[in-house]
Sequence to fold (525 residues):
Amino acid sequence: MTTTAPVPTLYEDTAPYWRAAVEGRFALPRCRACRRFHHHPRAWCPYCWCTDLEWAEPSGRGIVLTYTTVHQPPSPAFTAPYVLAVIELAEGPRMMANVVDCAPDTVRVGTPVQVTFEPRGDVAIPQFRPREETPS
Amino acid sequence: MTLSGKAAIAGIGATEFSKDSGRSELRLAAECVSAAVRDAGLTPSDVDGLVTFTMDGNAEIAVARELGIPELSFFSRIHYGGGAAAATVQQAAMAVATGMADVVVAYRAFNERSGMRFGQVSSAAAHQVNTSGVDNSFHYPMGLATPAATVALVAQRYLHTYGATSEDFGRVAVVDRKHAATNPDAWFHGKPITLAEHQASRWVAEPLHLLDCCQESDGGVALVVTSAERARDLPNPPALITAAAQGSGPGQYIMTSYYRDDLAALPEMGVVGGQLWRQSGLARSDIDVAVLYDHFTPYVLMQLEELGFCGRGEAKDFVRDGALELDGALPLNPHGGQLGEAYIHGMNGIAEAVRQLRGTAVNQVGGAANVLVTAGTGVPTSGLILTAA
Ligand SMILES: [Zn+2]
Fold:
């Protein structure tokens, strides 16, 4: 039984993502041809098949597209209740994260969030916390 | 060239359904396969094909040795967990229709409750050196690991998009358990539930209550597939395979397809449904019984929509109107489904479809001529339409 929280396995295409997180940077691959970010990191752009990618830093802002409050954790490493959410980044890609630094029952579909980093073992996990809406 | 009507299910067999079988998975497999072969009026030497799930622990050759099946000319396995169920019959039918084999047995046997529990998580799964390992690295570290949580995220978006409620999910559980209550083979025989009990059951992962989640079971089910022609000479009325399909959708993952446009849908089941209607030439109104994979209640509502039994977002109204009752417009899971009878990865539902067509089901729908069966959802999946000969 796992008692420490799982860490991601670093693969060739995904390692720079996790290494950036350790440095407190939120980095994603961006296609030099179509200029789109994608997540999770791949060897080529899933939109145009271009292999000319660069690591760039999106805003780290997004919204909660959907969420669940987990009451029955998969292992003792996780303390329930906690919030899992699909975040849609301002730049388009979606990703899985915990919504942290808030009461679980305050999260809603559409809650604005901002990336934050949770150190874990030798890496760090990009997570999200609620963001105050700033008028634009 | 069409597969429709070329092959039939001629035999069904099962073990008892329990929480602790007390015997090996191989013995469960041997028991259900031999029961199915006997039910078909055949002997082990008639069998020349075996097909199962990649997830099954019992190799085709081990089952063949156990039963004294001398030669196999066709063996195959289908991936993606419970999504394989109907596809095992599809593969068997294709093998029979193309002359690769004469009699193919599809089987699934496991100690899913007393052995390795699917509702739990294996930490090793996040570290596989393959594409599943890559996928899992973006889910497991956040604590997304149980099937319930993966479904809850889709279910929440569905509620948000269509204004459905937890009670709409609950109505599926209540119907399943009502049907199981009068099925002596069901784990929940004699144990119906009310909507209030569903609502009062504890949260597993919001918006899923405990009673939205299917049980874990020990047991095995096997299905004998042969040509329609040969099936007509065997003791039981054949269940003709009128349509059989697999489906995977855009941006497909195993339970975590959150990155495609519509989060409140199961497009892989839409892919299956489209093929089933085309192959069979049947209309929705021709279906007398629906055996829909019900590991989690929200996915039953979404399947009704993907298969076109109601419009997008309208399943809640369809279900509220009592359509799923035995005397309703589309009787659902008369055996009690996986929520009520047992969780044998969808194979027990195919056996129920055969009983309905034979007219021997315990909760028989009068004059059932066409039954639609689906496999696991949230994963690449499969489906069948079976027809009384
Ligand atoms: Zn591109």
